[in-house]
Amino acid sequence: MNIPTPRISTGELPASRKIHVAGTLYPEIRVPMREISVHPTAGEPPLSVYDSSGPYTDPGVTTDIRKGLAPLRLSWIRARADVEEYAGRKVEAADNGFAEGDRLVPEFPIRARPLRACGDTAVTQLAYARAGIITPEMEFVAIRENQLRDAVAEERGGQDFGASIPDYVTPEFVRSEVAAGRAIIPANINHPELEPMIIGRNFLVKINANMGTSAVTSSMEEEVEKMVWAIRWGADTVMDLSTGRNIHNTREWIIRNSPVPIGTVPIYQALEKVGGIAEDLTWEVFRDTLIEQAEQGVDYFTIHAGVRLHMVPMTVNRVTGIVSRGGSIMAKWCLHHHKESFLYEHFEEICQICRKYDVSFSLGDGLRPGSIADANDEAQFAELETLGELTEIAWAHDCQVMIEGPGHVAMHKIKENMEKQLECCHEAPFYTLGPLTTDIAPGYDHITSGIGAAMIGWFGCAMLCYVTPKEHLGLPDRDDVKTGVITYKIAAHAADLAKGLPGAQRRDDALSRARFEFRWEDQFNLSLDPDTARQFHDETMPKEAHKVAHFCSMCGPKFCSMRISHDIRAEAREQGMADMAAKFREGGALYVPAGQSEE
Amino acid sequence: MNIPTPRISTGELPASRKIHVAGTLYPEIRVPMREISVHPTAGEPPLSVYDSSGPYTDPGVTTDIRKGLAPLRLSWIRARADVEEYAGRKVEAADNGFAEGDRLVPEFPIRARPLRACGDTAVTQLAYARAGIITPEMEFVAIRENQLRDAVAEERGGQDFGASIPDYVTPEFVRSEVAAGRAIIPANINHPELEPMIIGRNFLVKINANMGTSAVTSSMEEEVEKMVWAIRWGADTVMDLSTGRNIHNTREWIIRNSPVPIGTVPIYQALEKVGGIAEDLTWEVFRDTLIEQAEQGVDYFTIHAGVRLHMVPMTVNRVTGIVSRGGSIMAKWCLHHHKESFLYEHFEEICQICRKYDVSFSLGDGLRPGSIADANDEAQFAELETLGELTEIAWAHDCQVMIEGPGHVAMHKIKENMEKQLECCHEAPFYTLGPLTTDIAPGYDHITSGIGAAMIGWFGCAMLCYVTPKEHLGLPDRDDVKTGVITYKIAAHAADLAKGLPGAQRRDDALSRARFEFRWEDQFNLSLDPDTARQFHDETMPKEAHKVAHFCSMCGPKFCSMRISHDIRAEAREQGMADMAAKFREGGALYVPAGQSEE
């Protein structure tokens, strides 16, 4: 098999160094972080930040997509002695849409036998958490969430709307949140390459980036690079929404090379298997697809089991009907057969599959609003209540669950979404798309939705699914993906600040100090997108000398408020302004002559 | 004088037609609006939207920047018979920074004698409103705000946080809001080219775009085009923040060609007049600059009179000190002279000038926070209280007032800003810069601030000052200005929707209907930026045929949820789904056999 050398984005970000932190309960675990160094004049230690980019930004590791990433979790999984290797389902031509010859994407070179739970055991993080077991995955995410900040309790600002954010994240806290169903650690036992992460209201807000081949075939390098590019800029999970041919083989290449959880919408592949005719879908085809994907290592499934026959009519008078693909497919099936959804009726069997591999549920919101006019309507909330029922069923089977949310929602209706979700779904983590706060700006929907995402993240949403500038218009290219990811990192971080997450403000403060001290390089390096910040600066002030200039192009030296502030600070120090100020305040509005004020 | 032919952006936006609506009280007024037509298959009338772009988008008007725009307000002003023409202040070399020869921007070709109030009369919209007079300006904005929607009371959604939004905007409502000081109509009697607009919490949220020559000289065409470009995309006012040479002449070119209110920060020009040495500023130089600009027709002045000597020490321990240019200049002056601010001490004389020309106050927040760490601190709120005092003084002189606000503020601290401002400043309109909700994304601060802007607009902020992607890094180019304006139109509109402003959702609904009916052209034309929407769509589906395709490149025909929704809708109609649904609901979770459900 001759594959051209992959063009994958590797290498560290500016002034950054990959570090690894060992565990205490599990000394062998190595939690990756990114350490950003600042100029010596700052007299500050480097800042360590959360790092979703995987080994691709580790100069100590040579990655080869034909080999895949190291299976770091394998020993952890084996050590639990509750799984068995087995032959696994045979890959069929239908799995790749009957692609043949040079239209068929080559299989991933290495073929491992899949793992599954022994007998009826549940091998989910939820089952372990309930049994009081702190897994390596749990200690890993605990260390990861703290970003090396001190364990001391900080003074907490923010408004958390009833969340239970800890001063410091301990492995036991992670276990208790997972046990309570308030957080999930998507981690299929067949995805050992995964660097565990957690999704929950009491942890850092996460973001997801979507990708996928469309009808047209693209190379494995391209597909893997899409994922690598998204995590390089901060995507915490990636959903593979591929349709068309080669879905099976492409997904294998992606999972084997992904350090982040991979989510899918299995109904898409099932529909391909029945030639794209929704009415021809059957439980058997769907079930077979779930096992196929579980064996490959998919970490979470979007399942639209909340769309039920009696809800379909509620969408008929909407402005934009049903806008979820999975939702519309199921609605059509229900309507055509005049039957209840097979996803709903076979939900317990789906749970039986998920608990065998620890595939987390992402219960899909098939009836989410596709326009401002349809937000928070009868159909949407009827489905949400059903998702609540399903959550309890999944929990009864020790399955991890998160709930998907809208969509298009004006600002004043966002909070109701969060409150109803917490109530209906018993605090299972919420995972929303945006929401978009207006319909009138196609081409800028990363912004219309970034506004809603920041707000719902503040209110308690655990993960935000990004939206790119191409939403509603076309397929995102490389730049669109980066813009979408950065926009959502902004929304997630703004939410962390507003929730008062301990340590969240450290990066803002470090960057603002750099700004105030004219440490331009530090200002670039501490930002979410150093390349763009530097490029924008250099467009007006290219010279290297300007990187130390005590002013910038916007005002020039004469008008630089920060420069003046430094003069004021200097004078203030001399004159003991504080006392003087006190005197001025006593004097109230009146001017106090210098003579007196110096008494 | 030989000026090259100006390159000014003119012409209508796609599918748009400029229309004019006549007044009732004043039949001679012609209120501009933009009528967007949709495809005949829609069976909908054209949508009329607010239009800030002026005659530049009116094919019936030939503009020539050397002649300036038609002085449409002149007859209205004259008719009030309370102003007199006079020689006016002589332009001095210092007004243009002593620029000479070919470094001197040519004077605007036409030199009109300025107007001022006769004797001690106040010629402000506030004075007229208090006297019970509905001016043409007031009827103009009333018609403009309604955007031709019907006068019927609509069902009101939204949460308005105690605002008093009317079902329909009448001229009398405008008068009463202006009289109460809750809204302003910035309209200098020496800016007759102005198409009046209103800034107030009970009206559409407005946006401002900043522009300005920097030290380097640029041509008049460039300067005028900056303004024309900003209003073409929706800027409601423009602030000229020019520094360096040629400030006077450049401003004259801008005002004579501007249909929107022009704001300035007079201290910038005053500082130029004293060679850029803050300590050398005097009341006399400042006073002279106010008169110079008032005679030219500046509609609102940013005055940093709230920065007082005793507040300076409160900024000494901030992370980013003082970040307002005007604020830092005044702080330095106060500190150096150990004196109270001359702006504060001479505030009543400033009012005397403003009431003579109807220059509105924009009371500057010189101590606004420049970082998340400094938000809502002692210095910021101390100044806000002083701005409240000054508001009452200005009102006592019949001067119109709005209040400037921050800055950098995390989401959970935004509401407090709005509440304190309403309380301290007696409901005078609030005008904020962003606020930016995090410091960590230079290069994307239009987004970090767009989030805060949408929220504070919802809470009651009347005007949002845009931030471009170049904020903190460099000078915005043409594309940055457009991105900043569109981002802020999104924030303002999202706020209008959330406040429940009657009619605000009409555009969202029209665009969403177009989206659901695959009317691609309508979807582009109804959007805030038709060019970008079309371009993004065409990148993946260039063919004209695709403009009528009943699917898009994202999912393709097989997966198009909206297409499926249409099938569902069709089937539903046949089967009388509504009744069936009722039966299903009676049946609860259980599936009701088709037989029964058809009884």
Topology:
The structure is a homodimer.
Chain A: E1 16-22, E2 30-36, E3 47-50, H1 74-79, E4 83-85, E5 115-117, H2 125-130, H3 136-146, H4 171-179, E6 183-184, E7 199-200, E8 206-211, H5 220-232, E9 237-240, H6 247-256, E10 262-264, H7 266-273, H8 283-296, E11 300-303, H9 325-337, H10 342-345, H11 347-357, E12 360-363, H12 378-396, E13 401-405, H13 414-424, E14 430-433, H14 445-459, E15 463-465, H15 478-499, H16 506-516, H17 520-525, H18 530-540, H19 556-559, H20 561-575, H21 577-586, H22 594-597
Parallel strand pairs in A: 8-9, 8-15, 9-10, 10-11, 11-12, 12-13, 13-14, 14-15
Antiparallel strand pairs in A: 1-2, 2-3, 4-5, 6-7
Helix pairs in contact in A: 3-4, 7-8, 8-11, 12-13, 13-14, 14-15
